[in-house]
Amino acid sequence: MRAQREKYYPLIPVLAGYLILFLIGREVTGMWQLMAMIAFYCALGQAFNIFLGMTGYVDFGYVAFLGVGTYGMALSISRLWRVEGLGIGIIPIGLVLAMVMAGLLSVAVGAVALRLRGAYFAIATIGVNEGFRYLIEGAKIWGGSEGIIFSGQMKKAFGKATASALSTFWADVMVFSIAVIAACITIYYMRGKIGYALTALREDEDAAKVMGINVTKYKIIAFITSSSLAGLLGASAWALKLTYVFPPDAFEIHYTVEAIIIVLLGGAGTLLGPIVGGLVYGLSKYWLAVIMPGFQLLIFAPIIIFIIVAFPEGVIGWVKRRIRGTALQNYFL
Amino acid sequence: MALLKLENVTKRFGGLVAVDGVSLEVETGEAIGIVGPNGSGKTTLYNVISGVYPADGGRVIFEGNDITPLPPYKRAPLGIGRTFQIPRPFSSASVRENVAVGAMFGTMSGKVGVDESLEIADRYIELVGLSPHRDKAAGSLTPVEKKLMEIARSLAMRPKLLLMDEALAGMHPKDIDEMVAFLKKIKEEENITIMAMVEHIMRAVVGFAERVMVMHQGRKLIEAPTAEALKDQRVIDVYLGRQLGE
Amino acid sequence: MVGQQLVGNLIQGLVLGGVYGMATMGLSLIFGVLRVINVGHGAFIMVGAFITMWMFTALGLIPIIAIPVALIVGMALGFLFFYTAVRRLINAPELASLLATFAMGMLLEEVIKIIFGTEFRGYNWVVGKLTLPITVLPMSKVYAFVGSVAIATLLYIWFNKTRAGTAVRSVVEDSEGARVCGVNVDWVYALSFAIGIGLTVVSGILLTMFIPVGINPYMGGQYTLKAFVIAVLGGLGSPYGAFFGGVIFGLIENGSYTLFALIPGVVPFALTRFLSFVILLVILLIKPTGLLGAK
Hints:
The complex is a heterotrimer of chains A (333), B (246) and C (295).
Chain A lengths: L1 H6 L3 H17 L4 H24 L7 H18 L9 H24 L4 H21 L9 E2 L1 H8 L1 H32 L1 H11 L1 H6 L4 H28 L1 E2 L1 H4 L2 H14 L6 H19 L4 H15 L3 H9 L11
Antiparallel strand pairs in A: 1-2
Chain B lengths: L3 E10 L2 E11 L4 E5 L6 H9 L6 E6 L2 E2 L5 H4 L4 E3 L12 H11 L8 H14 L15 H14 L4 E5 L7 H18 L2 E6 L3 H7 L2 E6 L2 E7 H6 L1 H6 L8
Parallel strand pairs in B: 3-8, 3-9, 6-7, 7-8
Antiparallel strand pairs in B: 1-2, 1-4, 4-5, 9-10
Chain C lengths: L1 H33 L6 H19 L3 H27 L4 H23 L12 E3 L4 E3 H23 L1 H11 L1 H6 L4 H26 L9 H15 L4 H22 L7 H19 L9
Antiparallel strand pairs in C: 1-2
């Protein structure tokens, strides 16, 4: 089935890209932090793209899934660290819990919000994000507004050396892995029936329904996928690295905005877009912080406006349009 | 058993009754035309049949089953296909991908995979003569090409009943004749029942439809073999003096 | 005792709500006419707050004088943003306008930050108090409320009695139809956006008359969120709905705070916010056109 294998060739540049970033980080001294940051943005973009890019719906409350995932890991460590013999096994438990919690939240959100269109959906998702955060703070769940600090428990559960290695290296490896997994899922969806359904509903939801597409089902699939990945990302990039979780940070809307920028910049709904977007955004943010600290947002703001108004298809979207009809188009997703 | 049976179908929008107690039976293999001036409720009727609007009264029965409560996406796999008056392509996808959507989610939903659907799409794209444009973005086609793509897309669904909404509007008279011949051909070859809606292109109606239902202000005015219906005085009055063949 | 406190808080809530409502009118107007959701809404309120504070502390001018200044500044900003960006967003997918307006807000925040720094500022305008049977209201709050009602009324008159206002209403009904009737739809869009922004900036003044402290570049965020809830309550796209939605919101906010404060072991402030979002979601589910909306 050569045709079958060929369908997945576009994955190669993606995997190559992540591998290169990883190697640069490992081999070149001092670059690990930067590469890890870029990997985070790429992963964030890949995960978010599965929903935003493929359905065209804007989940302005996306960061809630990262936040919930962070809590999943934080709760696992802070509650289970005493259990004999569990040791490093707490980490996979934390990851699973993060994914499950994020998945559950997305089912709850989806049931409410996915009946709504466009702007109403965006507002509803903001509502869920903020509502959830204030519920945690207001009812003093999970540490309330003080959050959970579990660095001490981490050290006691895993030993100082392992805990440190987790925070400074293995968490980032997880982030890279999540990016790769998200990319694989993206192309699997894009090439499958799901991809066609999502493209159809993104372009014209009513026509899609008449063509026989159960738009709600497909929206939910994309939504849960995207959210679960976000949960994993929160569990690794936030919980394990920072060793604390704090509601105002965990539900901070600007992460959602960063995710949106990355996806848009790279090209929404494309496979390569999030990598390009993550790379460009991560590098720009880093350099701006070095050159002109305090001015990053001031510079990003008009750039965002410019992209939206003049360049809405993003880098990869633009490239794809150019190579349409050529042999290259099947490999450049 | 009639393929499609409308029993006293009614649809209201607030105080306006867009479709008022319309009853109709369509047999398999028919070519039937729905005619009527602007605002007579034809599009609304189509929307009720395809499920876009839920009926406020009456029933829609397809192949003996009451489909009135079904949402639109469940009606397509049963075999109800539809084209729109103003084509609604999935603009950023290619023509091939657009038509493949029809195959994937139509009557063969669940039975064909992505690759098979693409092959089926190729067949229908060739049938309507759009093969040179197969890989182009659907949004870049000319309006006529978009209409042809709509038809290919709905044919790829392998529908039993095809609702065509003003498929011929804006076409040159010569093209209309070709189109009518084409529709007759696919009706035979694909074994589809076609319900075609036209506002005032009588040439097409006469050429294509064996039977005609004339609507006026939401109600069925008359239902008869084409020639008869178009000579009826009430129909002529309703069209304000327009006559056959214009 | 609790009862009296509750009623007192409700009165305060009513007054604050009027100001909230007025603050949301711009948001609703912009959505109603242009179908654009101004996610940067709070930042414009913040600009109004800074104008007031600066005029008071640097120039010694009382906030009431700041109102026309704010209106002019606001409308200028509105026209500026419209012609540079918003105009192209009118028919674009929602994502575009959501993001672009957010970026506008961000831009304002950063500019103000560079000029004024991030410390919390405030001012102190003492003009006496109004003593009611149950509670005491500082006169500045009373002025804020009166101002809100006055502006809402002026807007009503403008909408319904002037030519420009009628043109705007016609565009809301049917933009193509209005165009055919000779209405300069593009100008209506620009004007509506500018007025919407102008109203929002002015509301910043009234809000500071209510809460003259905590003024900082990032204060807008919480008001954007409240505005969304209020706008949905009153019906997205209806400025009058927004005003009454605001009043209802103020009542609920203060009333629920008093009640939550009775429950041990919770943080009433956070729970009030939680409640407001629950209301938002419930309304979006049951009656998205808002309690008072009909479209």
